[in-house]
Amino acid sequence: MKRNIALVRRLLPTAKRALVLFDTDVTSQVVRKETFGDLASQDVSGIQVDLKLTASWEEWQHEVSTARDKYDLIFIGLYQALHDKEGRSVNTRDEVARWTSEHSPVPTFGFWDWAVGADKTAGGLVLYGYDQGKTAGDIALRILGGTQPSAIYPVTADRGRFYFSRKQLQRWGLKLPGDLSTGALLTE
Q1: Which residues are within 8 A (CB) of 22 and not within 5 positions of it... i.e. 6 or more apart?
Q2: What's the rounded mean pLDDT across residues 136-157?
Q3: Are the CB atoms for 1 and 42 separated by under 8 Å?
Q4: pLDDT, tens digit, for every residue of 28-62?
């Protein structure tokens, strides 16, 4: 995630502040602890990054809608556990990504492939759910084959891939540097 933030610095060299939004689910809390050292704010490649875990859909919407006053860009993280004021789960991850893209006053970026698209985020250095699922399946097969779980070392996610939305890059007037565009996957 920090590498993704550092990458975006190359697309928006004048960016000084970024917001990273997550829901409050257990996975989001683990990310905050493991990736961000339980800090709510820190410097990443010269960008002051605020990490906010939002408890509700309305809180998420407020953070996005008021971002212009505080941030130059937004990274959207996990949001599958967002609930509205009636306690209902927000419909789908696509609904959150689409709403965020449509209402954000600043460019949005993602950490996973499913958050990138013409009506979602501009992209970034993203992880692919397929790759993560395959790795988890490989570990499960080892355990089913008799390997004790305690004998399996933690597996970190791959380094990600450059994946961008042409429409979102165009919308925000962003140009990929030559070395990034050469190996990047582009959608639409």
Answers
A1: 28, 31, 32, 51, 52, 53, 54, 77, 78, 79
A2: 84
A3: no
A4: 998 899 888 999 999 999 999 999 999 899 999 99
And the tokens for 141?
């097969």
So where are the chain's domains? 2-126+159-187, 129-157
Q: What is the DSSP letter of 116?
A: B
**Nearby residues of 67 by Cβ (< 8 Å), 6 or more positions away:** 19, 74, 104, 105, 106
Q: Say if strands 161-165 and 123-126 run parallel, antiparallel, or are unpaired.
A: antiparallel
| pLDDT given at position 120 | 97
What residues contact residue 159 under an 8 Å CB cut-off, 6+ apart?
A: 3, 125
**In the predicted model, is pLDDT for residue 78 greater than 70?**
yes
Which residues neighbour 94 within 8 Å (Cβ) at sequence distance 6 or greater? Answer: 114, 120
- Residue environment code for 126-148, b if the CB has 16+ CB neighbours within 10 A, otherwise e: bbbeeeeeeeeeeeeeeeeeeee
Judge residue 102's burial from the number of C-beta atoms within 10 Å of its C-beta, 0-12 exposed, 13-18 middle, 19 or more buried: exposed
Tell me the whole-structure pTM to 2 decimals.
Answer: 0.85
Q: DSSP of 10-23, one letter per residue?
A: HHSTT--EEEEEE-
Per-residue pLDDT, 67: 97
CATH number of 2-126+159-187: 3.40.50.2300
